[in-house]
Amino acid sequence: MGQNILVTGGAGYIGSILVPALLEAEHSVTVLDNFMYGQNSLAHVCYHPHFKIVRGDVRSESTIKPLLKKSDAIIPLAAWVGAPLCNQDQIAATTTNRDAIMMMTKHMGREQQILFPTTNSGYGVGQKGRYCTEKTPLRPVSLYGRLKVEAEEAVLRRKNSISFRLATVFGMSPRMRIDLLVNDFTYRAMHDRFIVLFEGHAKRNYIHIRDVARVFLHGLDRFSQMCGGAYNVGLSDANLSKKELCVRIKKHLPFVIHEAAYGEDVDKRNYIVSNEKIEKTGFKPIFSLDDGIVELIKGYTMIRNSRYSNV
């Protein structure tokens, strides 16, 4: 039998893919979630004898302490995710994304493992033509990025931890988010048949949601070799500008790209990323950007509702 794993925010976009994968790998999984979006995205695993679920707030010390005591490993997914959402309620974002993580590390034993998901948006604006590695200074340009950087520092200070700096995630999930960049652009291309593009030159990296689940399993399997470090996790062949992303989507869908002369993106990050460090541990993504676009087109045949987003 595997480990006892606590996944906070486990009914969210990533957790709804990760939790079934953990159960399939014979781990026992407890999910803590406040179900702020009214989702039932884990209904399909409620039958599983090694699955437990707790409705509660990750910021509540009285809720989290007894759950931590029973856990070998913690995957803290609970967060206000994305620059626009964090800007809407900065207090909630700060107390969830940073303060709750610090509180958890205070109550954890040294032998307990953390596999922490953060964002490579912490790199902010990179140098043109130079890849951001795990040694590149972190210069986040949004509240979301700053809080995640501060939380990562707290996690890595305790040594028995891994931080995954995730690229922009894409792909279908039972708790869908259509506001993520690939998901959003594909949705607009399919249903609106046009995209208004702000700052189309800005580059970032991408990763499929099922490869995100795979990297957590990879980290659990190789924890002793990988602990104490941060790892970029993305597709090495997908360091693309927003305009280049549109061109890739046009391979699958006809739509019009309108490059706006005025206006700006709330999230101003712009960088390219090296994923060499995680690849040297034996991890390689198996889902391409094109795989994800095809998958999203199928999914958006079913979905046509703005509630499938964070903002």
Give me a quick take on this structure.
The protein is of the alpha/beta class.
Verbal overview:
It is a single chain. The protein is of the alpha/beta class. The chain has a domain at 4-169 and 206-234 and 273-285: Rossmann fold. Helices cover 36% and strands 20% of the residues. The protein contains 11 helices and 14 strands. Helix 1 (15-24) links the parallel strand 1 and strand 2. Helix 1 (15-24) packs across helix 7, helix 4 packs parallel to helix 5 (143-157) and helix 6 (181-191) crosses helix 9 (242-250). The longest helix has 18 residues, at 90-107. The chain is globular and about 55 Å long. The termini are far apart. The relative contact order is 0.15. The mean pLDDT is 94.
